[in-house]
Write a structure and sequence with these properties.
InterPro entries: Cro/C1-type_HTH, Lambda_DNA-bd_dom_sf. Helices cover 69% and strands 0% of the residues. It contains 10 helices and no strands.
Length: 182
């Protein structure tokens, strides 16, 4: 790799850090390790070609162009956290990955057909995940925390919202959401 290619790769990884919170190579390797996948299976679940996944991981490409894929990445990160904390078994994780693979993604806050309650309304967890996905698509977790710190002296409730939804765990965000209803 020549100096120009190295510089372009470093620039792509820095953009990924800003957009996704870390370089996609590191993020995807964590998902592979945490969920017991190989690159081909991860690519299939995300709806990417294996070469595209490889280009994103290596920094040859900076951005995931399809918002549905970004949403699937977020769903897999949430699933990996649930596997790590023991709330989802390996067998359940495999089943959930198949559901994630089949999901259409779509625009944030509009795709509620896959997880709804009996009335057809989205579940609290689905709403929370969509809020998290939206926040995380516009800023890295560290930037969201910085913004929350800046807002805290004058807008503590808004700062808490940013911390909980932008950088916190889904379970904490669900509890926050439920505590602020009605």
């Amino acid at each position: 790799m020549d100096a120009a290619q190295q510089e372009a790769t470093a620039r792509a990884r820095e953009l990924q850090r800003n957009w996704y919170g870390e370089p996609l190579g590191a993020l995807f390797r964590k998902l592979i390790d945490d969920l017991g996948l190989n690159q081909a299976r991860l690519a299939a679940v995300l709806g990417l070609s294996a070469p595209m996944l490889s280009q994103l991981m290596s920094g040859q490409r900076a951005k995931i162009g399809n918002p549905a894929v970004v949403q699937r990445v977020q769903l897999l990160q949430d699933l990996a956290a649930q596997v790590a904390d023991g709330s989802v078994s390996a067998a359940e994780a495999t089943e959930r990955m198949d559901e994630i693979k089949k999901s259409q993604g779509g625009s944030v806050l509009s795709n509620t057909t896959h997880t709804t309650n009996g009335s057809g309304a989205p579940t609290v967890k689905r709403v929370v995940r969509e809020i998290q996905s939206l926040l995380r698509s516009v800023a890295a977790a560290s930037d969201i925390i910085d913004a929350a710190d800046a807002l805290a002296p004058t807008q503590p409730e808004l700062a808490e919202f940013l911390r909980v939804y932008g950088a916190g765990r889904t379970s904490d965000a669900v509890a926050h959401y439920q505590s602020h209803q009605n």
